[in-house]
Structure formats: structure tokens, C-alpha cells
Amino acid sequence: MSIKSLDPRVTRENLPEQPNTESIKDLHQWQTYEVFHQVKKGDHHIHVGPVHAPNPDMALILAKEQYARRYKCVNLWVVKTADIKKTDYEDEDIFETNQEKMYREAGGYKVMERINKFKAEHKNK
Amino acid sequence: MKELNDNQIGAVKDLIFRMADDELILGHRNSEWTALGPILEEDIAFSSMAQDKLGQAHAMYQILHKLGEADPDTIAFTRDEKDFKCCHLVEFPIGEYDFSLMRHFLFDSAEALRFEMLMGSSYDDLANVAKKFKGEIKYHIMHADTWLVQLGNANEISKARMQSSLNECFPLALGIFEPSDFEETLIKDNIFPGEKRLQEEWLKFISPVITSAGLILPDINNCEPAFGGRKGYHTEYLKPLLDEMTEVYDIDPGAEW
Amino acid sequence: MYGGGYIFEETKNGHSEKDDEKKLEQFEAKIAAGEKIEPSEWMPAEYRKQLIRMIEQHAHSEIIGALPEGTWITRAPGFRRKLALMAKVQDEVGHAQLLYSAAETLGKPREEMINDLITGKSKYSNVFNYPAKTWADTAVIAWLIDAGAIINQVANSKGSYGPYCRALERICLEESFHLKYGHDNVVFLATGTPKQREMVQEALIRWWPPIMHFFGPSDKISVHTETLMRWKVKMASNDDMRQKFLDMYVPKIWDLGLTIPDPKLKKNEETGKWDYTEPDWDEFKRVINGDGPCNKERLAVRRRAEEKGEWVRNALQRPTEKYTIPLA
Q: Which of C48, C207, C239, C213 is nearest to C136 (CA)?
């Protein structure tokens, strides 16, 4: 006996009525690629998520529908997850004093006060 | 060309019915894979392309509506089997994934070329629709070619499956190009270059892909093309498909869903 | 669709003994300050375990949730409904992909999760073990189950785990289409011919008990989840979400002149909350443990899909290529 479903597609599959609880072998899902999209030319590419794919060609084909079927985009990149090198969050402190390094910032160079003072001092001479 | 004469109207309508019915039936078939595909990502991609097919069918039926036929829903959901002009290729059940992929490759390659030709059609409405769908069909071809070449070159099982599906689909696919009674008008008035020309282009287009996939194209001279669909003679699969598709629509004729 | 009524395990004193006290303190401070936790950061083992469990259940609910509505995918009436239903069922598959990916970042490969689903080890939302008997059932599911899911998901998208929040944000955007589509569909039936009205009323009667089950057991009887709430894994209580749903949707259902099959259902003016007949939690447990009308079929279908795809996945698998968990 096979399952008679309300879904004609399922009925056509002739599924066994007895439940099967065995594991499926070869369920493997390939490897993962990270997908980046560019919303419009001139923008940076932004990470949008991963796809499972066996190789880069397939990753691009599959990423197109999962990540660009609803959202506007002009370009996609895929890169194998394993090829991405990243910093550890445990090392987050290496970025900590960045904001204090005023010698690297435009805001670190405010000379108007000095100029005004100089002008005021020399006005009467 | 905006206004058609009677002879041209007959020719254009016939051409559009063939195209739209193919798209509707294949889109319907391919939608059967939704949520049952071989891997999640491909499930999504294949479903999008099935939706595209239905969208194309709808746009085509809209042109027919402008030419005096009923509205798209009525055309799609109320005609008898014999009034459909789809080819046999699109009617077959989805089978295993190799069959569905091969059908997708063979059909969409023909469709991509047909739309390319129609972009230059003297009949503006057809040319405009063809231009509109250019991009989505291009993706279908990228998808089909990638899968075909990869599975054809992967392992013994996948290669054998793809070859066997090619052998099965090829004569059916030749049925796409069943000549119509209007070929002469279509060609003479620059509406469409004709099925014979399309088939030649198609063979040139698919051959290198089939070769890259390591597959062998069946000898066309030993193939009996599956004709009949364009004249309303269908396989045993179309009637049950239409009964299923229209089950809810038929519950309450005249209802708005 | 469909994050709701998760089954949590009781947390073990909030964390395992191995977890470093100092790290735990920092972790909790981050969450209290509204910071997100990212995949490679330190987290208590219990946090990881409960998150995997929850996100996995959510992903399963999407992929199985595609089946009740999928029942009508070949029979949707007219182009507009046919295209919309295809797109909706497709979105559910897409959501499953996003959610499995989020769960994978915690270290459980997708194949293991799918295997746990089809061998009956993992749970998914109870409602999908009920059949979609008529076209109108798909309308009620798309409107009201998706409405429930949005309430749950909007809450969860403010949770603490980065990848889950990001997935949910995207999912919620797509759900708004589902909700509109479902509402439009129900409105057409409810304002249509007598036959159509009858169909949608019957579907509502069938789906009301599962809808009341959707947010999970009443707070009075569910396991204590204080730690999970503190860790922002669970973001709202089952009863609060149920109340919110009733507040938002009961008036809309009544607007259409439809009858909700619960004579006790009314807003209590004193408490400001809805009174309702307590859902049958024994049935909820029975169904979630495998004895619902469609449990067997749902798992058999998923198993068949995986079996049919096996040769495709095998063919393109290269032994030299090793699976890596996704980045974020």
C-alpha cells in the first residue's frame, strides 16, 4: 500500500505507508560558498549569506535565485567559505584605540583658534 | 506593424497559442518540483524558472486577448484538451530530475532562440514581449548549460542518466518545430522566420553544449519527431494534467478567486 | 513562515560547569547591553545547544511547512493565485535554506539536521501535521499561520544571536507578502459566492485549534525559560504572543463575518486580555510526538525528496572538497 495524499504530486510518488526511520546515507550537502551582492554600480559588494554548492560555477547559478530573486542587484560574487581568512572576535581589542588616534583624523587638526589668536595679537602692530 | 490583416491575425494567433500553451504546461509541470527538489538551493532556482514560464504564458495570452480572444484565465483554465496547441515534450510527467533538466535545456534553448528572432518581428507586440523576457531566459540558459555540462561530466551514473534522458527527449523536442499552416505568412510578412529555420538554429545552438557535456546527440535522421500537439492531438498525459490544474477553478464557475 | 511553539529543554542551571565564570559574566553583560553574539565568539555550551535546537526546528518548520500549501500548487485557480502560491511555497524553501545556514554557523552541518528531521529525531511546528483539505485551507494557512509566525519572528529578530537575527530580518520582509497574499485570498473567498464562503468558513473551523496551538503550551505548563529569556534566545512568552495574535487578528476575522469556533472567545474588559477555551494540550503533545493526521506523510515526502536528489548530489560531490561551516 502506498500513501494516498491530498496532494496529487505526493500520491504519484507511491510512498510507503510504513514509516522509515533509518538514516539516509549520502545526504551530504556539498560545501559552502559565501555570496556577496552589489546593489548598484559604484557600491561595495556586501555579504548576504551562504549557498551550498559543489563548485564556483554552480554556486553562482544557485546564489542568483536564493539571493537575487527579490532584491535588486547588478552583480554577484561567490567565494569558497574555506578561503576566507578572518580576525577572531577574541582579538576585538586590536581595534579598540583606533578612535583615539587623532593624528590620523582630519578632526585632529584644528588650527583656526591659533590663527585667530595670532591675528588678534598682531592686529595693533 | 501595429494593425494586422485577417490572414496575419490567424497566423499570429496560431503562433502565440503554440508558444503560450508550451509555457503554461511546462511551467505547471516544473512547479511540481517545488519543495521536492534535489537540494534546497536548486529547488528555489527551478521554482523561479517555472514561475517565469507561467509569467511568459500570461503575457502571451494577453496579446491574444487584445486580438479578441478571452482573458488569460479563461483561455488557460477552460479550454478542452483538443484546443491546446502545446507540443508533446511539455506534457510528459516530471520523471526523475535528469528528465526534467534535459527537457528544460532542450526547450529553453529553443525558446531563447525563438525570442531572439521575435525581437526583430514586424509585429510590435511580439517583439516587445520578446525583449521583455530576454534577461530571464538568458538565466535559464546559463542554468541549463551549467547543469548539463556538470552532470554529463560527473560520474557514470549521472552521465548515463543524462544520455538516456537526451535520447528520450530529443524526438519529443523535435515536435517543438512542427510546421504550422501559416509558415508562409509568418515568414513573408517578417513576423517570425519559421519553425524550420528555428530548428536549424537550435541544432547549432545545442550541439556544442551537448558535446561539452560529453553526450551524444541522437541521429536526427533516425528520429521520428513527435508531431501532433500543434494540431490538437496530445499524449495521454495532457488530459489528466488539465483536470488537475482546473479542479478548483471548476468548483464554482463564475467565481472570482 | 512558521517560527513558533518551539520545544525547549529545561536549561541546566543556566550553564554547564565547564564554562568559565568570567567568560559567562562577560557574555551576559554583552547581551544585557544589547550586543549581538557572532558565530566564532565564546558562548555557553547550553546557549549553543538551545539555539541550534530552536533554529533547526524553525528551519524544519519551513521545509515541512511548504507541504500543506504545496498540496494545492498544481491546482491553484487562475494565473494570479497559481503564481503567488508557487512564489510563496518557494519562499518557504528559501527560508529553510537561510535558517539551516544560521544553525550551521553554530556547528551542526545541514546534512545532520536534515537527517534528524527525516528520522524523526527533531521536531517542527505542530501545525504542519494537519492536512490542507481544500483550496481554502491554503488561504487560511497563508493568512493566519503566517500572521502568527510574523509575531514570533519579529520578536525573535531582536534576539541575541547575529546570524539568526539577520536571517529573520530578511524572512520577515518576505512574510509581509505572504500575509497580504493570504489575507487577499481569504477576503476573496469570504466575499465571494456562497460556495466559496462555505469553503473558507470550514477551513477556519479546521485550522482554529492548530492556530491556538501554534505559539506553544500555555506559560502555566511550559518548561521554565528564564535563562533563555535572559540570554535573548526566547524573546516573548507563549501566552503573550497568543494574546497579541488574538488582538490583531480576531477583529479582522470577525470583520469578514466569519465564525471562530470558540464560544468563550471574547476580550475581557477587566483584564484587557482575551478569554478563550483552553486548547487541548494533550492533543498537542500527541501530535508533536508523531501521532497527528499527517506526520508520517510529511516525513515520507521529505525523505523521498532527499532520496530522489541523492544521485544529483553524489555526482557533483568531490572527495577532495571538504564541507566548512558557513561564515555568518
A: C207
Q: Which of B24, B28, B31 to mutate to test the interface with C (most CBs of C within 10 A)?
A: B31
pLDDT of residue A28: 87
Choose the mutation target among A1, A11, A20, A69 for the interface with C, i.e. most C CBs under 10 Å: A20
Chain A to chain B, count of Cβ pairs less than 8 Å apart? Answer: 38
Percent of chain A's residues with pLDDT above 90: 67
Grid cell at residue B16: 502565440
Q: Which of C79, C188, C301 sits opposite B256 (nearest CB)?
A: C188
The reply to whether residue A20 touches residue C303, judged by beta carbons under 8 angstroms, is yes
ipTM of model: 0.96
Question: Shortest CA distance to C211 belongs to which of C166, C146, C167?
Answer: C146
Is residue C220 exposed (0-12), middle (13-18) or buried (19+ Cβ within 10 Å)? Answer: exposed
* Contact check, Cβ <8 Å, C309/B28: no
Q: Quick one: residue C2, left, alpha or beta (phi over 0 = left, psi -120 to 50 = alpha)? A: left
Within 13 Å and on the Cβ side, how many CA atoms surround C311? Answer: 14
Average pLDDT over every residue of B209-221 = 97
Q: Is C175 exposed, middle or buried (0-12, 13-18, 19+ CB in 10 A)?
A: buried
Res. A110 pLDDT band, cuts 50 70 90: confident
pTM over 0.90: yes
**Considering only alpha carbons, which residue of chain A is nearest residue C103?**
A50
